[in-house]
Write a structure and sequence with these properties.
136 residues; globular; 6 strands; alpha+beta
């Protein structure tokens, strides 16, 4: 039974508020974004809600192409759930709290960027832009 340690690690992350947890699933708040987590045999998967400013098939296509264009985003996917869209990412089980914090921050930044329709003005500063460029 591995999941208690996964949830304990999540609770130590600065960006994460664990709202509810049941067995291998959790509902999270990551920097104010509604999120979900699933723990499976291949590691921890976290989905951060994408709130498209204006949803269109073109926005979804651009975001999908962005993820497909880089080896760094192979562990990410955009999936719908009911009337919501999530940017999912798989995380290795052996990450330290600091490593998980860094990756969650980049994941959240990418979800925010996709939510904006890939609008550069959503990136607050040069460091955010560099973080996103390094990710994709």
């Amino acid at each position: 039974m591995r999941y208690p340690s996964i949830w304990q690690t999540l609770q130590r992350c600065d960006l994460v508020l664990v709202e509810s947890c049941r067995e291998t699933r959790a509902v999270l708040d990551i920097s104010g974004s509604y999120s979900k987590a699933l723990e499976g045999e291949y590691g921890l998967c976290i989905g951060i809600e994408i709130q498209f400013e204006t949803f269109s098939q073109a926005s979804l296509n651009r975001a999908s192409l962005l993820l497909a264009a880089s080896d760094e985003t192979l562990d990410q996917a955009i999936l719908p759930e009911a009337d919501r869209w999530f940017l999912w990412q798989r995380y290795q089980e052996d990450l330290s709290t600091d490593e998980l914090n860094q990756r969650l921050e980049a994941h959240h930044l990418l979800a925010k960027y996709i939510s904006s329709g890939l609008c550069k003005s959503t990136l607050q500063n040069r460091e955010d832009m560099l973080e996103l460029v390094n990710l994709v």
